[in-house]
Design goal:
The protein has 330 residues and is of the alpha/beta class. The protein is built from 11 helices and 11 strands.
Length: 330
């Protein structure tokens, strides 16, 4: 079990009690019948685990849904703790959209909630194993993790949950979310299908932008705070080197920092990336020690006023521009 799971799992008995308490409190306060999901004016109540799942529900559901995210803006999703009120609401939702293995507290709450329409994004696309603190070699690289012994498990059985950072995989998840909304609200099925097709089209176009924008670069290696960009690296033939593993707050070993200093020189690395929801201390330390620049590469686990964009597409395009600059795109 990885550090994230050890640190953040909520005891099952305590969570079960929280679910019961939250459900009782919610019913007493609002008088809402089961299955309303907090939706108003006949809208489908959707509870999403964190921003990428909420964004899909909002884009596909539009005016037919009311989306509530368990992870509020500015909260690092890995650190989420479930409150009794949230677990009660989870049991009342018409549809729950989450990504199993990313947030252990959410996984347990969903399992105990009894909600019928559950969309697990991890079942809608193939999850892969990527090196956490070592090489994530892309299509033009070598065998994954070659020469490294400092990888950590990501999610279940070492699978990397950060699929939304690959537009193609995110589109596969979008199709599954659309199908779930059609099932929950067949009256508006045609609208959900139309909205899903539009979203998939936008994601396909974004994929093309990344392919074209990263086709010719001076370097193929980028260094970032934590291992969130394995799918993006693989999709576009890049090598991800992460300072930390799955937990963005974990401290790298002195040996890892020394290794990255040598790799930066060897691979013509110009930039150390940090992110908006985690500390930039180690990234700035590494950059200072190696004479490199720093910049933002956002794993899009949440949107705040510090984000380089107002939504998924804007932030992803900011990521592309920052990667192009760091890698010396031609």
């Amino acid at each position: 079990m990885d550090v994230m799971n050890v640190r953040r799992l909520i005891p099952t008995a305590a969570l079960a009690g929280a679910v019961a308490l939250g459900a009782t409190a919610l019913t007493a306060c609002s008088g809402a019948a089961a299955g309303t999901g907090g939706g108003k004016d006949g809208k489908v109540g959707v509870t999403a685990s964190f921003y990428p799942m909420a964004f899909l529900a909002e884009q596909i559901g539009k005016d037919h849904v009311k989306v509530d995210s368990l992870t509020k803006p500015g909260v690092e999703p890995h650190d989420l703790e479930i409150t009794p009120k949230q677990t009660g609401r989870l049991g009342e939702a018409d549809v729950v959209v989450y990504l199993k293995s990313l947030q252990p507290a959410v996984d347990k709450a969903v399992a105990l909630s009894g909600v019928k329409n559950v969309v697990d994004a991890a079942t809608l696309t193939e999850l892969e194993v990527h090196g956490s603190a070592g090489h994530d070699h892309g299509a033009e690289g070598h065998a994954e993790g070659e020469g490294h012994d400092h990888d950590h498990d990501h999610g279940e059985a070492g699978r990397d949950p950060h699929v939304w950072l690959d537009p193609t995989k995110y589109a596969e998840i979008a199709k599954g979310v659309g199908a779930a909304l059609e099932k929950a609200d067949p009256e508006h099925a045609a609208d959900y299908r139309k909205n899903t097709d539009e979203l998939v089209g936008k994601l396909t176009a974004l994929d093309s932008e990344f392919k074209d924008g990263l086709k010719n670069t001076a370097s193929r290696t980028f260094v970032t705070t934590h291992s969130a960009f394995g799918y993006l690296a693989e999709r576009y033939g890049l090598d991800q080197e992460a300072i930390s593993g799955v937990d963005p707050e974990s401290e790298p070993s002195p040996a890892r920092m020394k290794e990255l200093q040598g790799l930066a020189k060897q691979e013509n690395v110009s930039t150390v990336f940090f992110e908006t929801l985690a500390s930039d201390k180690t990234a700035r330390t590494l950059a200072a020690d190696t004479g490199l620049r720093t910049d933002v590469l956002d794993p899009l686990e949440g949107i705040t006023d510090k984000s380089q964009g107002a939504d998924y597409f804007e932030v992803m395009r900011s990521n592309l521009k920052n990667l192009q600059k760091a890698l010396g795109a031609k």
